[in-house]
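hey so u asked for the seq, here:
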Amino acid sequence: MINNDKKRVVKPDRFIDSANCAVEGILHAARAEKHMRLHFIAAIAVLLAVLFLKVTPIEFALLALSILAVLCAEMFNTAIEAVVDLVSPGYHPLAKIAKDTAAGAVLITACGAAIMGYLILAKYVMPRYGEVLAMFGTVSDMGTIVSILIVVIVVVIVKSATGTGTPLHGGIPSGHAAVAFSIATAVSLNTRDPLISLLSLLLATMVSHSRLLMKIHTMREIIIGACVGAGITLLVLQLFKMYA
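ran it, structure tokens below
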């Protein structure tokens, strides 16, 4: 809190003032930090999952503590960044170390929360995801190869029609995202194993994200590519299953 008369920072005397300052800090972090907003969205998603999956009270407590740990770590990271910017407005190696270390603490906490979430929610989510995969049945090897080839051909045709990028660089849609999600979809339907499916989709997401980091594609191009790859593969494999 700032005393306007003396222009100095004073400690709030009343509890309500302290609470207001704390809420202002949370709101600032949510406004200023994109990752904080993402953490809040992830927290809402987990809480909704907990509501529908009906986890035990102990499991809910562990998930809640994991969520709070990530949010607190992000808050500390925001506070450290603000102090570093105040003390060292310009670039300084030690300022970089302080910020990187604080960000590393958030990453470690988030990884721990992800592991906790997986260990608790997997027994509820994985069997249901496995049932969804089983609905599509086992697909043929020929269908897998044909679907990937069709995805590549469609990407080339669309890029040629839109006049954007080259077959292997830029343009609509992202060819890397399309092929990556085509393979991930094929792997998911061939194995029908929930864990392998999720790992395949994670790998496809990482491939697609690398194109975004390298500024070769926009998020829109990547999303279109992922939808094209997964959609065509799913359609072709089901057609092969029906007429095999």
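The beta strands are 2-3, 8-9. The chain has a mean pLDDT of 82.
lmk if thats what u needed
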